[in-house]
Task: structure prediction
Amino acid sequence: MPEGLLAPPTRDRLHAAANAADTRILSYAARARALDFYLTNPSGRARPNRRWKVDLDALAFDPLASDAPKNEVAFSGSLGRAIALPLATAAREHPETLAQIARRIDIERLKFGALALGLSSLGALVHVPADYDVAEPIVITYSIDASPAFPRTLVFLEPGARATIIVEFRNRSGAFVAGTSELIVDERAHLQYATTQHVDSGSVAVETALAQVGRDASIALASADFGDGLIVRDRESSLDAAGARMEQSAIFLPTGDGHLDVAATVRHAAANTFSQTVVKAAAGERAIARFLGNIVILPHAAGSEASLRDDALILGPKAHIDSVPALEIACNDVKAYHGATIGAIDDEQIFYLRSRGLDETEARRTIALGFFEPVVDAFPTAALRESLTHRIVETLR
Amino acid sequence: MSETMGLRVAGLRATVENTEILRGIDLVVEPGKIHALMGPNGSGKSTLALSLAGHPHYQVTAGSATLDGTSLLDLSPEKRARAGLFLSFQYPAAIPGVKVANFLHAARQAVRPGSLAPAAFRAMLVEKMDILGMDPSFMGRYLNDGFSGGEKKRLEMLQMAMLAPKYAILDETDSGLDVDALRAVGDSIAALRASEEGRQAGMLIITHYPRILKHVTPDVVHVMMDGRIVLTGGHDLAERIEREGYDGIRDEVGARA
Ligand SMILES: Nc1ncnc2c1ncn2[C@@H]1O[C@H](COP(=O)(O)OP(=O)(O)OP(=O)(O)O)[C@@H](O)[C@H]1O
Ligand SMILES: [Mg+2]
Result:
């Protein structure tokens, strides 16, 4: 475990790190990049119709340096032979596992990943040994009180392992949270990984996610993002070996002056890989949702199949949804599918439901809930599905 | 029977996008009676149905419409449904993600609040689907989403059976149905009329074909042309239209006018 990776940074330390030439410190590059990011991003709040901007200048770095951080990570679910630990404990007890993940997942090549890697003092490690099936979902709950926070979630499934992980955030109002998901799913393993987050006005939530899926392994990602804050997601899944599969389902529901900006990339880097992306984005009031779905099929990925489906529902007269598909296909022998719809709730649908006794509000809610239903279905537990439905209903109220 | 009972339409005029389509409709469907409404394409049958159901694109400019004494025209579409009006759509909307069973339950609750315990609701649903020859798997499917034309019409009839309205307007429910489906629709209507809830149900069946009327015998047949009801008669009127088309009637009506 490299020295200093989890040490609390300060503004001074950041500057010092940037100026230091000691490349033996693994986190050096990350900190340099974090600093670079911090220096080159002018202040400015998220504003509709403009590309998001994050005011790092306004962030208090002191909480990061405090001895008793108020941010916590908690776990629930019975683990059996799996391990789930706070990152700080894992750094002491399982440095080899962390180093292994660090060698395989290059989180710092992504801007916010570098930021998190450089500044994180909070996080979780889940490690499932080979051929072990964690029967119960593992729930990781981050309670973010001190801002900024950079929670890193590291997951390592050894060959043939199976696990379901649910990540939840309890963020205090106005918090800046830039976390990562660093996921390794080795051959024949299966990971179901679900995240939900509500980001309220004035808050910023960034996630940088990298997943690596091995031979005949599969990953099912499900995410739901709500709120009127700024939500930034940069997700990339690599199907690195033959037979690797990934399914991702996402709910985006920004409201108020909320702004959501998501880039999801799937890399098909081996033969006979499979990916399916389903996105349901709805924006209310003056909210903006921007989704970039990127499918990359490399030349040696023959026999692969990729589908990208994104549906957008405009719920407010001033809401705005941008959906940009990008398919880079460098192999002939593949199947790739892209489908997208965008629109408001159809008057004929509303009238149909009203003619069956539902009032207009109920009719709109029913249609919007239906819009999200296939993706809600992709979440792992009944309790989670119910709470999502509840949250959608509350949001649409 | 009281003078106010029935689905009573008088002098009804309606426009769509500033074009007058209904030009004075007079029609009374008494409780328990079956009326058929026929007429060439574009004569205004669906416009009448949608205007009565309260479709926002249709503007009623004159006349009245009451349901057992309640004026419909001032009511929102949902209040018309709750008052006991049902429209079987010629083109039912698809609503992805909304499961048939959940929707039917919500609709039943809205139209007849608290009237059925969940178990009784389930039992009723199974029974009605059986009459309509619908596979139980339809309960878990999304509302009209990917349904064939005939399946949509059966689902409209299932909704009617579950909601047990006082008055139902069936807009070409028979179009696109195979012979078995047609018989099933007939059976479903008969079952509704034999039930406690549906005993007094009045129906306005909009159709182009007399064949549905072999399964559901109408008490009265109306012919609509150019936004008016031009002829009213008995069952034999449907057969005459089948034989002669509308030209004879058009000439006759034209001669009278
Ligand atoms: N939304 C609309 N916009 C424009 N014109 C309309 C609209 N709805 C109906 N019309 C017109 O009103 C007239 C009557 O239409 P309507 O659908 O009521 O006829 P119909 O008797 O039901 O015909 P069909 O037997 O073909 O179903 C037609 O000329 C039609 O084009
Ligand atoms: Mg019609």
In short: Chain B touches chain A through 31 residues (CB under 8 Å). Chain B has one domain: 7-256. The mean pLDDT of chain B is 94. The pocket of adenosine-5'-triphosphate (ligand 1) is lined by residues B 16-17, 21, 39, 41-47, 57, 90 (CB under 6 Å).
